[in-house]
Each structure stands twice: as structure tokens, then as C-alpha cells.
What we know:
The chain is mainly alpha-helical. It has helices at 7-27, 32-39, 47-71, 73-92, 97-125, 128-159, 164-167, 169-183, 197-216, 224-245, 261-277, 280-291, 296-302, 304-313, 317-324, 326-342, 353-379, 385-419, 426-446, 448-451, 464-470.
Amino acid sequence: MTNENPRPILLWLVAIGFFMQTLDTTIVNTALPAMAKSLGESPLRMQSVIVAYSLTMAMLIPASGWIADRFGTRRVYFSAIVLFAIGSLLCAFSQSLTQLVASRVVQGLGGALLLPVGRLAVLRAFPREKFLAAMSFVAIPGMIGPLLGPTLGGWLVVVASWHWIFLINVPVALVGCIATMKHMPVGRGHGATRFDLNGYLLLAFGMVAISLSLDGLSDLGLRQATVLVLLIFGLASLVAYWLRAARQPNPLFSPRLFSIPTVSIGLLGNLFARIGSSCMPFLIPLLLQVCLAYSPLQAGLMMLPVATAGMFSKQLATRLVRRAGYRMVLVVNTALVGVAMASFALMSPEQPLWLRIVQLACFGAVNSLQFTVMNTITLKDLDGGLASSGNSLLSMVQMLSISMGVAAASAVLAAFTDVFSSAAGVLQTLYAFHATFATMGLITIASAWIFWQLSPDIEPTAGPHEAAEAS
Length: 471
């Protein structure tokens, strides 16, 4: 090792990787209309740019631990940064939507490995009693990424072009590659276990088929029969995976995870609650630019109240859970998230700016609180060999829900655009957005029933804010 005390530098290295990943998840949203104009596409049909990235990440996360054990954390982390940089360059030079989507897949391959492999390196470098504090430090840039992403994306589109939202990743990646070779431990595993390739293929195919079936309703132009077949095959593939996993000695995710009530309810609640709320960073900037004539920079600035209120509301999680309990907080707050989402159906050009800001801040506060408490209830009862598996499964569910949420919202938006075809010009699109917000809000409210299945007697054994950041 070239440094006698590499641990602080290792934390900074992993934190920068996490920042790159979370920044790129949000920076694209405000630039979608500019991309659509440049590529000759409709801004309402650009969801594949987001779906491709998040779905690729969801697919690779289950294999990330085995890959790191097999090839070593330094080599894999270095390769992840290189892949991310190559994908960014390909995105910047894309000449069509198809090329851009393919480039986002390459970028997602790198992004999927950044946090899991970095987290593994921190886990091996720090003793257990210091791991929580170390991961809390790593999580701070991860919160700054979504805070800066929409505004930075809008600013780059205005002062330069949308290509620069990808090109700025290249110098950061170059610094990251140099730092990785100097300060990342080799981390060669203790001999990787046999990889469950057949199980992985079943799981990956299921996720892709379900996401494509949703995306096909709005973007791919697939016939209804094809969409139905994809959906059925996707669900069958996921069921086949879990049936197979019950008979495997080393499955990707142990079925024993679902024998723990908080884990099973937390995972299902995460999936369905996030399907609704994950579409909001995609829908809001589109609504502001397409229907309310905001510039990309103005649309990005309007996302600041969402992120800022979210950072403050995280501090309330522990106090609320200790006073009301996990079940009551999650049931009530899930309903509030859905109501906040549905309230965007009232947004119009005549709405005062201050009211719009308050509306965005309220959504950001309840949505951030939701994520924090959902993550904590899912992970709080995991220990031993199930901790790593459960955490990886939660990460996969989170990325899958983004993919499904954006695809579902786009399909709903496309359907309502046809419904309101008799309306003239911008009004047709505005009414379609209103109906989409109301529909996705109702989906989120319905997911509160999942959290009602939690026992009312669950005691908070750790602060939800701290536990969620460590996850």
C-alpha cells in the first residue's frame, strides 16, 4: 500500500463514486426536452433514457458482490469507473435515441458497481463498530448529488448543450481511476463461491421483460398482445427464480429473507411505494418545461425545494418512529406521499410561484422521510450472513422500482394524451399530466396497505436516519 493510513482517502474515493452515480441519476431529467429536440424526438417519449440506466443497474447489482470477490475490489472498482466514463462519452456523442439508450446501458454497467463494490471495500477496511460512521460519511455526497443534479443539468443545457451533462463525468472519472490505483485495497476475495448463473439469468430476464412490457405501452410501439406476453413471461421468470432458489445451496438471494416479516414487508413496500414516487423526478421537469414554458435552468432550480426539504425531513425520522411506531409512520406517510403527488394535478400556469414552491417542498419532505423509514424497517432485523444479501436485494429493488415507475408513468401519460386528444395544443398535454399525477398518486396511496401488515409492536432498535444512511 502506498499510503500508511489509506482509510480516509478510501472513504473519499468511495464517496466520489457514489456522488457520480447519484448525480447521473438526476442530472438527466431536466435535460430531456433539450435532448429530444436535438435528436428529433418527442420529449414525452424520452423515458427510455432513464429506464435503460436504472434497469441496467438493477440487473448487475445481484452479481456485484460475486464479481468483487472473484476479481478483487480494486480491479472491479477501476473497471467500473472506466465503463462509466466510456458510457458517458458515448452518450455525449450519440446521434439518435437508440444510440443514446445503448450508451446509457454501458454507463449503467459501470454505475451499478460503484457503490456496492465501494461499500464492500469500506466494510473490509473498517472494523464493525466504525462501519456505520464510515458509510454515513460516504452517504453525504450521495445526498448532494440529487440536490445539485437537476439544477446543474439545466444550467449546462442553457450555457452549453445537453452533451456536457455527460462530458463532465470524464475528468472526474480520470481522477477516480488514478486514486483507485493508488489507494483502493486490492481486496482479492477469500475465494468466490460458485455463481448461480442460471438463477441470475432468470432474475435478469424477469426484470427486463416486466420493464419492457411497461415501456412498450408508451415508447416501443409494441402491440398489446406482445406487451401481455412479455409481462407474463417476466412474472413467470421471477416466480421460477424464487422456486429454484429454495433448492440451491448458494442462491443469489436466499428465500430465508422472506421469512423475516419486516424484510418481506419492507421489500414489497419499497417496490410498490417507489413505483409511484420514483416517476416524480421525471414528470415534474417535463411538466414545467413542456406545459409551463420553463427553461431547463428554471426547471432545475424548481427541484431545489424538493431536495432541500428532503434533507431536513430525514432528521425527523427517529423522533417520529419512537413516538408513533414504524407501522403508523409508514402507513400515514405513504398516504401523504400519494396525496402530495396527486396535488400536482392542480398545477397550472395561473398558480402563484410561492404556492408551487411550497407544493414541491411538501412532496420532498414526505418522500424523503418515506425512503428513510422504509430502508430502516427493511434492514433492521438482518444480521449475519443475511445482512449483505438483504442489502443487495434492497438496492436492486430500489433501482428496479425507478425503471418500472418511469415506464409506468410514461405509459399512463401516453394513454391520457390520447384520451384528451380533443383538447387543443398545450391543454391536451397539461390535462394528460394532471391525470397522470393523480393516477400515480393513487398507486402510492394503495401501497400503504402493505405497511399496515407490519406489527404495531416493532421497537426502533436504531435511529432510522443513521441506519438508512448506512444502507
